[in-house]
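My current task is to audit a protein record that another person submitted. Please read both lines and tell me whether the tokens look consistent with the sequence. Do not assume that whoever made the record got everything right. I have pasted the whole thing underneath without changing anything:

===
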Amino acid sequence: MDKNTFVVEKPCPICLQKTHVIKPKSRLMMESRDADTCVHYKDFNINLYRVWLCEHCGFAGDEKTFGVRITDRTRTQIKEWLDGHPIDHEFVDENDAPRAITSLERALDCLDLLKAPIAKKASTNHQLAWVYRSIGDKEHEEEYLKKAAELYAQSLATERYPIGNLTDTMALFVTGSIYYLLNDYNNCASFLSRIIGDQNARTRERVLFEKARDLWEDVRAAQKEEEKAKK
């Protein structure tokens, strides 16, 4: 068992049985943060523990998803789906990348079944990209970064914010930063400009506004380098 985690029991919202889940300890030492807000901690990969997997029925979701109220009808529908799509959901007290990937993929399926907000699906795809990043799988990282960016963009166009703790300004920044990592500077600039041009964001979310402005400068520099390379 990882020294940075502990095990507790939580009720599964689908089968209603208590299942063992792994929670990261609160006192973790941050080492760095990537452009798209992925945080790296000393000697610990928190992205391997983003979602819980029920050891009884195979339902997966983050802590908030485990706490949502689900109707009996929806619970029955999801239970039937889980029974027809079995995966290895035996409890282990320490996760690795393959298990985290399986859990996150199952969590995406469960979000679809729950008709969860698009923003929630976007963040889960983003977390999958982070796991692939941690093992150096660039191809799959970019695949899920693209999915996350597309879903964030769709969410911003159709959903009302805030969604959970996510504000529209944060969603704009995350989407822009993902496109920056994908070297799609035009899309990146498009999303960042919506923050920079928002005077309310300047006062309401000043730290995020300044991060967007700093990233905007990096984008402009990258665009200039691209223009030079074309000449």
About this structure: The longest helix spans residues 206-230. Residues 1-116 form one domain.
